[in-house]
Amino acid sequence: MTTKNLLVELFVEELPPKALKKLGEAFATVLADSLKAQGLVAADAAVTHFASPRRLAVHVAAVAPQAADKAVSQKLMPVAVGLDASGNATPALLKKLQALGADASAVPALKRAMDGKAEALFYDSMVKGATLGDGLQKALLETIAKLPIPKVMSYQLQSGCELPGWTSVSFVRPAHGLVALHGSDVVPVQALGLQSGKRTEGHRFEAAVSPVVIADADAYAATLAKDGAVIASFAERRAEIVRQLDAAAAQVGGGCKPIEDDALLDEVTALVERPNVLICEFEAQFLEVPQECLILTMKANQKYFPLLDAAGKLTNKFLVVSNIKPDDASFVIGGNERVVRPRLADAKFFFDQDRKKTLASRVDGLGKVVYHNKLGTQGERMERVRAIAKWVAERIGAEPALADRAAVLAKADLLTDMVGEFPELQGVMGGYYARHDGEDESVAEAIEDQYLLQRDHTAAVNLVSFALDIADRVETLVGIWGIGLKPTGEKDPFALRRHALTLGNRFELLGLATFLDVGQMRLHLAELLDFAQQQFPPELLSSDTVSGLSEFIYDRYQNRLVANGLYRLEVVDAVVSTRPPLHDIVPRIQAVKVFAALPEAPALAAANKRISNILKKTDDVDAHVSEVLLQEAAEKALFAAMQTVLPQAQSQWQAGDYTASLQSLAALRAPVDAFFEDVMVNAEQMDLRLNRLGLLKSLHVAMNRVADLSKLAA
Q: How far apart are the two ends of the chain, measured CA to CA in Å?
């Protein structure tokens, strides 16, 4: 049976730009999968999707006009129901066969097979393969029903229905055309009140002809480009925009580059059918405003691409992706420049007005802003963060007075005009205003850093920023968790998962940073959570807040360490299961990773697991050994080896050299193996048994000081 390529296009009014990419991919995928499921297309057939502001389309290679017939074995009923005592068909069986298009003559050919505990009758038949017309009709309706439409729109059909002007259909936008071509042949299908054909529309203003006639499925993209002035492929249109943006930036010169923003690029790609990038500019005086404000207003409100110079500073040039390509683009350029000017003027006005009042003068106003009806105002929250920030600062070597000042001013920019207009700039504007007010640079940077989750603190570290960031996140975690608003399923409206993960990352950086001596780090999660809970009114938070949050934070942090692919699950679990200080986890993991590669590691891990199982079966055992009670040569040898190895391993552990500590323990492999080979731990004589258990307990404590090595056992 000869196959041909298939093209299906749904022509609609302008689709929502932020949803277009997903809509295009889903339209192609669901329709092709349905055709494959019906046997009309091979499983590995090439599928190409198209999506422009006014169309969703898919090209599927090698589609058959009819699917192959299939042999089907259908269960009818239990033998006891279908045949009487003489083996003749019962009325129930005959009725069932009639419904399947067969009669009594099919009874002798029925097969018997066990179905569970009873024998059943099965009818074998050939099912005729679906025709392309029927199969595509089914696939098209299924695709429309399954599209990830953000918001459905209902509208009335004006033709192709029983009651024009009254019959309603629902879709993402009103649909006006349907193309379905198998090679050059139209496949007769219907959807949304439309009958398929081979005509579509091109660009609203620049199409060479209207309508655009698609000769065959393979000519779709080329015909639309030539006659319709439309680049149908989302990916090709996006690549063309990138090419033109880079070319325009090179034309401006000076090492300029358009700002990188994939979300903006996708949205602009969804707004134009044939992109034309133009260079525009605004008055240089607006560059006095922080560039974050100008960039945000140009991107969010106008969908422009600001140009940055070689140093990453904003220039007064920007790029516009136009949907038309006139001979004289000056009117388009001038229009965009006029549109952006009031936006920039507003930003400058807000910036100038905000600086007339200091951040400190706005702090009292936080007492009038509700944070949460159970947790009080932003002013009350600020006081809690202040206390926590000072407490944290004292334990990580930051200046408590500066941490306190940063906490006082941290949320004051919420009351500025700029942040009121652009909430995305909270923190960023606080940093600018703090510098303008003459605040300490570490305070300004700490205010600015609050929302910059990806900031690299390893190059230039500001401990005040760390103190504020940790305090702010912990206050949120303890307060929101404590009043019962824990994350459930996919719901996490207060971003507690993100706060927990970021908190773990902060501890990690503090633990790895060379600027912080081991003895300086006195910040521990349980104490931090407990102190934070004390800042809330008594009886407000649940009694299990600290314990529940601690487990939540450790679990989130462990998942992150495993997900990044740097460490194996068992290595991470060996460390995290012992609940060490958060800042100590990564150094311990790195040490265990080295230890796990040693030839002695498997045997020691297995021995540790065996010791753990033995100790679990006994009551509390003291890690005490009487040398007088050591009788067997193997236990004496193990005790002697421990006397040499354990002090060395402990000294290395106390110095923070976890790798060396574990490597020292590797020397115990031989005596440990010999002990389990030759010594009966559960001796009948009680004092011998307790002494041997004490020996194992001493060994167990030493072996699990860095991590639970039993987790490494196979």
A: 55
pLDDT at 515 over 60: no
For residue 443, CA distances in Å to 246, 292, 464, 695 come to 38, 19, 7, 54
Distances (CA, A) of 619 to 51, 604, 607, 622, 705: 69, 24, 20, 10, 21
Structure tokens at 642: 């421990």
| Cα Rg of the chain (Å, integer) | 36
| Residue 178 bridge partners (DSSP) | 10
Q: Give the Å distances, CA to CA, from 291 to 237, 286, 313, 356, 445.
A: 29, 9, 8, 20, 17
Q: Report the run of H or E that residue 654 belongs to, with start and end.
A: helix 633-654
Q: How many residues are given for the chain? A: 714
- Per-residue pLDDT tens digits for 373-423: 999 999 999 999 999 999 999 998 899 999 999 999 999 999 999 999 999
The backbone region for 303, taken as left when phi is positive above 0, alpha when psi lies in -120 to 50, beta otherwise, is left
Cβ-in-10-Å burial (0-12, 13-18, 19+) of 145 comes to exposed
Q: What sign results for the dihedral spanned by CA atoms 531, 535, 538, 539?
A: negative
- Which residue is associated with the tokens 């001013």? 409
**Can you say how many angstroms the Cα of residue 252 is from the centroid of all Cα atoms in its chain?**
37
Query: Is residue 609 helix, strand or coil?
Result: helix
Angle between helices 463-482 and 525-534 (to 10 degrees): 60
Q: Compute the distance between CA of residue 41 and CA of residue 631 in angstroms, rounded to an integer.
A: 78
With a cut of 50, say whether residue 454 has pLDDT above it: no
Query: Distance (Å, rounded) from C-alpha 378 to C-alpha 370?
Result: 6
Residue 522: burial class (beta carbons within 10 Å; 0-12, 13-18, 19+): exposed
Looking only at the bridges linking them, the beta strands covering 190-191 and 194-195 are: antiparallel
Burial (CB < 10 A; 0-12, 13-18, 19+), residue 241, is buried
- Rounded to the nearest integer, the mean pLDDT of the chain is 91
